[in-house]
Design brief:
The protein has 14 helices and 20 strands. By secondary structure, the chain is α/β, with parallel strands linked by helices. It folds into two domains: 203 residues, Jelly Rolls, CATH 2.60.120.10; 277 residues, Alpha-Beta Barrel (TIM Barrel). Helix 5 packs across helix 6, helix 6 packs parallel to helix 7 and helix 11 packs antiparallel against helix 14. The longest helix is centred in the middle third of the chain and has 15 residues. The radius of gyration is 26 Å and the shape is elongated. About 3% of the residues have low confidence. It holds the Pfam family Aldo_ket_red.
């Protein structure tokens, strides 16, 4: 696992003597701390920066390959600009890669206290040895970007040549106007803020001024703010949901999506009530009205039940889960007295007037139903939730929402499908293009799907019982894609989908 240094960590970091130069500091792009239990490895890849890598504990074995031999690490149909070689070091396919024997390999082992310098464009694979813990720190310097697309010619050999030419054109010397060797990093930030290296911006953007992990909100049509990224409490086994929800709250999630058909409301309410340092106004709670409860009285009873289970006196957002019952997803028992979604909406408006609800929305509605709703609603339709993922873009529905100032919220983002034998799988999480983007940004495929959705201005609340995934998902909103946007653009433009 690797993470950007937080501002607190800079108090423990001293600028090495050979880096204590204003010209060098301006070129720094990222500080990263690597830590794991040992005995892990990377793919053969190339970075778009020069890298200084220091081993703190344990050991790391490096396999280094010069840029001029990068052309031997790809097949003709491989996208060079991805920066990741498909060669499997432990099982090289000589039929697929017949020129691999031409590659020069430098094998180096870093021990505690060792530092390696890796120029931009050098392919490398890294294996950790020893631990736990195995810890190292990297400083990424000076993006040349010649291996990241742009004006680079197509083809691995041409791209390698372009990289070498650009590298040779860089100045061979730099001039230091100010020196700050052996200075604690936090002092450098305070005294030389005008130098403003990108690496410091990356570290600071994860936190807001009050020291909390940064949250990004959208303003709803109701006037209230809703976080763009949340946690789905819904659909989890009870005991696992208790653990995952408490973990999400510790990770400073503030948007929680519940479901009336499970224990998610009760679980969230109990956890919030037992966490005195979290104020009610610091969280945004989403509640749904199941179609079995359509109609005036049943809708009011459903919301009152949610208020009781959540142990709160108001709900931030109530969604009508579906406009009617069906025989599959929204099964309901027979009831000749069941009301309509229009009656439910009018009941929810009464609850807004009574201060029990702040914002209203609907889920799984057709555009014709949305137009009808907008025509009679006294209070604005703030949110539309619908199935949305890389395969199913809902382009027309999202454009309708945009035109009417309505926030669009996704469900089904991970594209999970139920197989014939009853298991649940996600073709999206194992798709090569999603996997490639995840490797590029050093994160998980799920985090990539979330970051892509956020780039489309879609609010997401993915559920998970995996504590590591919950942490990765939380950081999706601050995942920096600015320096290599092609990986996200690839998913938007070159991924098979329906609109």
């Amino acid at each position: 696992m690797d993470a950007t240094l937080s501002p607190e960590m800079t108090e423990d970091l001293t600028i090495p003597r050979f880096l204590g130069c204003d010209a060098i500091m301006k070129m720094m792009k990222q500080f990263a701390l690597f830590f794991n239990a040992g005995w892990s490895s990377t793919y053969i890849h190339v970075d778009a920066t020069e890298t200084l890598f220091a081993q703190i504990t344990g050991q790391r074995q490096w396999i280094l390959i010069p840029p001029t031999h990068g052309k031997y690490l790809h097949t003709d149909d491989f996208n060079y600009h991805a920066g990741i070689s498909p060669v499997e070091p432990d099982a090289v396919d000589l039929i697929k890669f017949p020129n691999i024997s031409k590659v020069d390999i430098y094998n180096i082992t870093l021990y505690e206290g060792d530092i390696i310098y890796v120029p931009e464009g050098w392919y490398h694979q890294v294996r950790t040895m020893g631990g736990p813990p195995n810890m190292a720190m990297a400083i990424f310097v000076n993006y040349l970007l010649c291996s990241e697309g742009g004006d680079t010619p197509d083809g691995a050999e041409a791209a390698t040549t372009a990289c070498i030419a650009r590298r040779e054109a860089t100045p061979k010397e730099i001039t230091c106007k100010e020196r700050m060797e052996d200075m604690p990093m936090h002092e450098f930030i305070a005294q030389y803020s005008y130098i403003n290296p990108d690496a410091i911006d990356v570290a600071l953007e994860f936190e807001s001024p009050d020291g909390k992990l940064r949250t990004y909100n959208s303003t709803l049509k109701s006037g209230f703010e809703m976080p763009l990224l949340g946690f789905g409490v819904r659909g989890q086994p009870t005991e696992k949901a208790k653990i995952s929800t408490a973990h999400a709250l510790r990770l400073q999630y503030s948007l929680f999506d519940t479901d009336p058909d499970d224990e998610s409301e009760e679980i969230l309410g109990t956890i919030l009530a037992s966490t005195p340092d979290v104020k009610r106004e610091d969280v945004f709670i989403v509640v749904k009205v199941h179609p079995r409860n359509l109609g005036r009285e049943k809708t009011i009873d459903s919301v009152k039940r949610s208020l009781t289970r959540l142990k709160t006196d108001y709900i931030d957002l109530v969604l009508i889960k579906a406009p009617s019952c069906d025989g599959m997803k929204f099964k309901c028992e027979a009831d000749d007295n069941r009301g309509t979604w229009k009656e439910s909406w009018e009941s929810l408006e009464e609850l807004i007037e009574g201060g029990k609800i702040r914002s209203l929305g609907v889920s799984n509605f057709k555009m014709s139903q949305l137009r009808k709703l907008i025509g009679f609603a006294k209070f604005p339709l703030s949110v539309v939730q619908s199935n949305f993922n890389l395969y199913n873009r809902k382009t027309k529905l999202r454009q309708f929402c945009k035109d009417n100032g309505i926030a669009f919220m996704a469900h089904g983002l991970m594209g999970v499908l139920e197989t014939e034998n009853g298991t649940r799988e996600s073709p999206l999480l194992s798709h090569p293009k999603v996997d490639l983007a995840a490797k590029k940004y050093r994160t998980t495929p799920g985090t990539i799907l979330i970051r892509w959705a956020l780039s489309q201005n879609v609010t997401v609340t993915p559920p998970s019982t995996n504590l590591d995934h919950i942490a990765f998902n939380r950081h999706a909103i601050v995942l920096d894609i600015a320096d290599s946007p092609w990986a996200i653009d690839m998913l938007t433009k070159n991924f098979p989908h329906v609109d």
